[in-house]
Amino acid sequence: MSTTDTTAVGQGNTTPSGTSLLEVDDLHVEFKTRDGIVRAVNGVSYSVDSGETLAVLGESGSGKSVTAQAVMGILDMPPARIPSGEIRYRGQNLLTMSNEARRKVRGAKIAMIFQDALSSLNPVLTVGYQLSEMFRVHRGMSRKEAKARAVDLMDRVRIPAAKERVNDYPHQFSGGMRQRIMIAMALALEPDLIIADEPTTALDVTVQAQVMDLLADLQKEFHMGLILITHDLGVVADVADKIAVMYAGRIVETAPVHELYKNPAHPYTKGLLQSIPRLDQKGQELYAIKGLPPNLLNIPEGCAFNPRCPMAQEVCRHELPPLHEVTDDSGRPIAGRGSACHFWKETLHG
Amino acid sequence: MAETGEQGATAVGNAQGEPILQIRGLKKHFPLTRGVVVKKQIGAVKAVDGVTFDLYRGETLGIVGESGCGKSTVAKLLMNLEQATAGEVFYKGEDITKLSGRALQAVRRNIQMVFQDPYTSLNPRMTVGDIIGEPYDIHPEVAPKGDRRKRVRELLDVVGLNPEYINRYPHQFSGGQRQRIGIARGLALRPEIIIADEPVSALDVSVQAQVVNLLAGLQREFDLSYIFIAHDLSVVRHISNRVGVMYLGRMVEIGSDEQIYEHPTHPYTQALLSAVPVPDPDGREGRERILLAGDVPSPANPPSGCRFRTRCWKAQDVCAEIEPVLEVPERYQSEPGEPAAHPSACLFPEERDIVGTAE
Ligand SMILES: Nc1ncnc2c1ncn2[C@@H]1O[C@H](COP(=O)(O)OP(=O)(O)OP(=O)(O)O)[C@@H](O)[C@H]1O
Ligand SMILES: Nc1ncnc2c1ncn2[C@@H]1O[C@H](COP(=O)(O)OP(=O)(O)OP(=O)(O)O)[C@@H](O)[C@H]1O
Ligand code: SF4
Ligand code: SF4
Ligand SMILES: [Mg+2]
Ligand SMILES: [Mg+2]
């Protein structure tokens, strides 16, 4: 295993051949609560390469953010605990690294854009100060230099009149603007991998398009990997290379982007796609998957989706489906496709 | 009361009955200050700058627009959570921008808000049960003490959260789950008007569909009126009877969902619609997008004339001089039945089919 040069910026090619930029391998995360153990992540595996975009979709509460937080090493432990699994960055397991080595990776190499822009920004410091700090601490720039870079970055994420607003506090910006400041912060040190947790949820569609274009441009320029967690299936269709769908702390389906939309192989994915409202339609009632999401204190036995699944059979109530390889009509595996459903074949063709 | 609004617009013709809220020339300017010890005002962020519209009983008015254009500020002004710089908000004939104390409290029972930020709007030290039940402390007449837990459990169920979660704290929930807590709280008092600021943006599409169906059901049942602020134009279309489009502190176009989505006449609305990502990866390359040039101008220093002119591909010299009024454009006034005949604040309005339903 080679040690990677942690001072170089945005190098795309130091990964030992055969390993991905980031691999999450059979990760488990649980929380201790007053009412018992909440099993939030139950064996998640995914990987992303340099220059690649992996979109993580799924039920709200299914463990998308918790998985990302585990990768970043920012879970509060306790109450969180990682009983098993590995998270490998360029082949090195982050979970067994020294704290210092890990700190070097986090922020500079892997950066995260959070779902909650307001609570991730410090309310008593100006946004300009918070951006400048990054350059001062990690790049040793002078105050003046750093401030100029901060304005530059704010410009890049399209904050109007950046120069005048660099001394404003977070609460003086709209929700969408705060989100763009978060994006600026993540991009500041030109990391190899960006984990974006709903980066455009708070943005209007025109700014969203600009921000996604910006992320895509920078991704190409620096050959970054991108893990995009989002509920917006339109954005996913626009930018993703491949998709992982989560339900109750597991990956239930993986597929290249075109395949998934055209031909889902898991009933949950199918229900999700059916629920999308369309711009050119005004229906009476939107399709919605029936029932409630599972209580993670007490995940249903067998397939966690079985109480809500229109295709469920007896076997689904006691046998946990593994992630099956999905094959085409002649039995050849389709690259990158998997489905954790006993009846993936029927789902694919039904 | 008279039409005192600067933009002079009344709502479109399909008005069902009486308006429950009338907003006239509403403004909110936030002072821009310099200096730490001695604060000196050097200008103002014109977050909302003369907005006029009506909300009818039982209808849903969607509000869309660029981030930072003032949607959340309008919402807060309607609740009197921010003090208006100018303008009026009439609720049943009473200007609530002038109310305070007990009179304001009484009105607030009937106008509830679901906030945009599910992270900061929930008190981290209160359990979910207490958060959702808190409105009953302020308005005990709605639910007798012994009845509250039961009501809260019902509300949790209604928004698709497990009632067993009643004793958990906000940080133990995911983003989408927290947003549903906010919705449950907004519903607790069974208000007449709900102002929902991005109520479904953090939800997966299936839960989103459940919540949208839920809101629609409650509306039918209790004749509720909604103001629904969102960035997802498909969701807005689905739930709204009418839609208002805002740009830089002003309303630039308003009409029925069909008028706005299928017959938009304002260039900004057209650009907005063209930017909606389509959930189909095969359509990635084929779509026509109107890419807006330039940056969003600062609301502290909006352009003269038409505020959209710095980014509008149709802008003429005159657009810098004349401020277009939100009214039915002259060229469509002779055809009142035509869908293009709805208020649009543009000097050169022109229909353009963006969504492609006309085929
Ligand atoms: N500190 C905690 N204690 C107990 N449970 C927790 C804690 N943090 C998260 N959870 C639970 O873990 C599960 C996964 O949460 P996570 O935030 O990863 O969901 P998500 O997939 O990102 O959802 P969303 O799309 O709504 O953001 C949720 O059901 C949540 O209730
Ligand atoms: N307390 C404040 N002080 C100064 N400026 C403010 C304050 N609150 C809001 N603003 C400014 O007012 C403008 C409108 O903000 P608002 O939050 O209403 O926008 P929005 O349309 O809701 O945007 P988004 O879609 O991003 O939520 C923004 O330019 C914002 O920076
Ligand atoms: S395994 Fe059974 S319950 Fe689970 S998704 Fe497949 S059919 Fe449905
Ligand atoms: S008034 Fe002029 S600048 Fe404004 S939207 Fe119309 S054409 Fe464009
Ligand atoms: Mg999340
Ligand atoms: Mg807002």
TrEMBL record, chain A:
<keyword id="KW-0067">ATP-binding</keyword>
<dbReference type="GO" id="GO:0016887">
    <property type="term" value="F:ATP hydrolysis activity"/>
</dbReference>
<comment type="similarity">
    <text>Belongs to the ABC transporter superfamily.</text>
</comment>
<dbReference type="GO" id="GO:0005886">
    <property type="term" value="C:plasma membrane"/>
</dbReference>
<keyword id="KW-0472">Membrane</keyword>
<protein>
    <submittedName>
        <fullName>Methionine ABC transporter ATP-binding protein</fullName>
    </submittedName>
</protein>
<keyword id="KW-0813">Transport</keyword>
<dbReference type="InterPro" id="IPR027417">
    <property type="entry name" value="P-loop_NTPase"/>
</dbReference>
<dbReference type="InterPro" id="IPR003593">
    <property type="entry name" value="AAA+_ATPase"/>
</dbReference>
<dbReference type="Pfam" id="PF00005">
    <property type="entry name" value="ABC_tran"/>
</dbReference>
<keyword id="KW-1003">Cell membrane</keyword>
<dbReference type="InterPro" id="IPR017871">
    <property type="entry name" value="ABC_transporter-like_CS"/>
</dbReference>
<dbReference type="InterPro" id="IPR050388">
    <property type="entry name" value="ABC_Ni/Peptide_Import"/>
</dbReference>
<dbReference type="GO" id="GO:0005524">
    <property type="term" value="F:ATP binding"/>
</dbReference>
<feature type="compositionally biased region" description="Polar residues">
    <location>
        <begin position="1"/>
        <end position="20"/>
    </location>
</feature>
<dbReference type="InterPro" id="IPR003439">
    <property type="entry name" value="ABC_transporter-like_ATP-bd"/>
</dbReference>
<feature type="domain" description="ABC transporter">
    <location>
        <begin position="22"/>
        <end position="273"/>
    </location>
</feature>
<dbReference type="InterPro" id="IPR013563">
    <property type="entry name" value="Oligopep_ABC_C"/>
</dbReference>
<dbReference type="Pfam" id="PF08352">
    <property type="entry name" value="oligo_HPY"/>
</dbReference>
<keyword id="KW-0547">Nucleotide-binding</keyword>
<feature type="region of interest" description="Disordered">
    <location>
        <begin position="1"/>
        <end position="21"/>
    </location>
</feature>
<dbReference type="GO" id="GO:0015833">
    <property type="term" value="P:peptide transport"/>
</dbReference>
TrEMBL record, chain B:
<dbReference type="InterPro" id="IPR013563">
    <property type="entry name" value="Oligopep_ABC_C"/>
</dbReference>
<dbReference type="GO" id="GO:0016887">
    <property type="term" value="F:ATP hydrolysis activity"/>
</dbReference>
<dbReference type="InterPro" id="IPR050319">
    <property type="entry name" value="ABC_transp_ATP-bind"/>
</dbReference>
<keyword id="KW-0813">Transport</keyword>
<comment type="similarity">
    <text>Belongs to the ABC transporter superfamily.</text>
</comment>
<dbReference type="GO" id="GO:0055085">
    <property type="term" value="P:transmembrane transport"/>
</dbReference>
<feature type="region of interest" description="Disordered">
    <location>
        <begin position="332"/>
        <end position="359"/>
    </location>
</feature>
<keyword id="KW-0547">Nucleotide-binding</keyword>
<dbReference type="Pfam" id="PF08352">
    <property type="entry name" value="oligo_HPY"/>
</dbReference>
<dbReference type="InterPro" id="IPR017871">
    <property type="entry name" value="ABC_transporter-like_CS"/>
</dbReference>
<dbReference type="InterPro" id="IPR003593">
    <property type="entry name" value="AAA+_ATPase"/>
</dbReference>
<dbReference type="InterPro" id="IPR027417">
    <property type="entry name" value="P-loop_NTPase"/>
</dbReference>
<dbReference type="GO" id="GO:0015833">
    <property type="term" value="P:peptide transport"/>
</dbReference>
<feature type="compositionally biased region" description="Basic and acidic residues">
    <location>
        <begin position="349"/>
        <end position="359"/>
    </location>
</feature>
<dbReference type="Pfam" id="PF00005">
    <property type="entry name" value="ABC_tran"/>
</dbReference>
<feature type="domain" description="ABC transporter">
    <location>
        <begin position="21"/>
        <end position="273"/>
    </location>
</feature>
<keyword id="KW-0067">ATP-binding</keyword>
<dbReference type="GO" id="GO:0005524">
    <property type="term" value="F:ATP binding"/>
</dbReference>
<protein>
    <submittedName>
        <fullName>Peptide ABC transporter ATP-binding protein</fullName>
    </submittedName>
</protein>
<dbReference type="InterPro" id="IPR003439">
    <property type="entry name" value="ABC_transporter-like_ATP-bd"/>
</dbReference>
